[in-house]
Amino acid sequence: NTKFSNSGFNISVPQVKWTFISVAAALVFTILLSKSCTVVDSGEIGIKFHKWDSSKEKYGGVEGTCKGWVFYNPITTKVFTYPTYLQRKNYEPFNVNAKDASTFQMDPTIAYRIDPAKACDIFVKYREGVHELENGYIRTCIYEAYRTCANRYTSDSLMSSRANFESDVRHRLESSLQKEGFIVEEFTSQI
Questions:
Q1: Which residues have CB under 8 Å from 98's CB, separation 6+?
Q2: Is 2 helix (H, G, I), strand (E, B) or coil?
Q3: For the residues of 104-136, what is the DSSP string, one character each?
Q4: Per residue in 67-76, pLDDT tens?
Q5: Rg of the chain over CA atoms, in angstroms?
């Protein structure tokens, strides 16, 4: 046992070794703890899932939704979040044809939110973030609603009853998006 004495402190080599090991262990524990927990904010819904689980009972490894402090094993588990607050997306204008082959330019804007009760279903089906969903699935639904509804109107009837056309488009859009877990709050087309 080697002892160091300086200004009245007696420190032995084993004490220094155990102090160093304790500090290193505390540091490793803190790093592991920070990598194995996350916070799901109040305006979000978290989906906790196992990376390599393909069981049908768990919808491809999905454990369920979570909020607040979430602890997990970062090697086998991951937490994906969706915002549940209002999202607004303004799309680039695109053209649709009426029944008589006339072309109308639509410039849609949508305000929507994700239904927290269906967040797991959205994740299991798409496994994409909000921006990918907006530019993929939601954009396709908007275009399809416009295309289908515009094909029922001639150019004159569409212009004379724009309110009915907008209502038809919104109704079709709401029904297709709501089935998937998206709640449409506002929708404008700016024909």
A1: 104, 150, 151, 153, 154, 155, 158
A2: coil
A3: EEE--EEEEEE-GGGHHHHHHHH---HHHHIII
A4: 999 998 888 8
A5: 28
